[in-house]
Amino acid sequence: MSDEVGNASGDAAATPVARIEHDLNNALASIVAFSQLIRSDPSLPPSLRSQAELLVQEAHRTRQLVGNLLDVAGHGRPPPGQPTAVNPDSPGDRPLARTDERPRILVLDDEPSIRDFLGRALTRAGFEPILTASGTDALDVIRSDPPAAILCDHRMAGMSGTEFQAAVAEIDPALGRRFAFMSGDVLNHDLRDFATARGVHLLAKPFDIATVGDTVRALLAASAG
After folding, report:
1. CA distances from 159 to 82, 136, 143, 214, 218 (A)
2. In degrees rounded to 5, what are phi and psi of residue 157?
3. Contact, 138 vs 132, CB < 8 A?
4. Of all residues in the chain, what percent carry a pLDDT higher than 90?
């Protein structure tokens, strides 16, 4: 694998602060995501609606506090325009216009809670999720039955996200561009340079339900254009 790919992953050189930031963002992403799933679940009893609303608001507030903490630590947050905003007044559901065939979206993330949330969010948005926990399993899917687009974690045990993207691009260059990195470190210069050079998207963790659907639609629209 090239030095470009190895350096972009940054896993081996990650500082203790960067590793804590990564783990914190993953945990916070799950809290934000599942609070929204609970609130927007049509089967939720009316007696629990107010508690669900409070849970979403507190998850949103925690997210802001963590962002402020990272600012103080010098790690900053994604720049304006990066799809990370949570609107606690919005249910976060933007269904895709239904067709006879649901676009298949491959998810690669070694965090079970993130995979679970993305599977639910993509299904609600009108897509068919394919959930994988390792680069090897994901590459098997791509070789046998390629998906329409890919959402991939940046830092993972084993094969890193950038190594996986490079492998996808070798197999199918077009699919390698219908690709988004999910990362709590989207200000990482190596990652941003890699993504720009490869023509792939960045999806900042933690994200909300609407952002997931919007990102996938952007990937599919770009390929259609």
Report:
1. 26, 8, 17, 27, 26
2. -70, 145
3. yes
4. 32
Answer yes or no: is pLDDT of 225 > 80: no
Q: How many CB atoms lie within 10 A of CB 14?
A: 16
> Helix, strand, or coil here: 10?
coil
Task: Return the bridge partners of 202, or none.
Answer: 181
Which residue from 117, 114, 158, 116 is spatially nearest to 138, judged by alpha carbons?
Answer: 158
Q: Which domains are seen in the chain, by residue range? A: 3-224 (3.40.50.2300)
Return the structure tokens found at 61. 């507030």
Please state the rounded mean pLDDT for residues 208-222: 89
Residue count of the chain: 225
The closest of 70, 84, 88 to 22, measured between CA atoms, is 70
pLDDT in tens, 182-197: 987 766 788 888 888 9
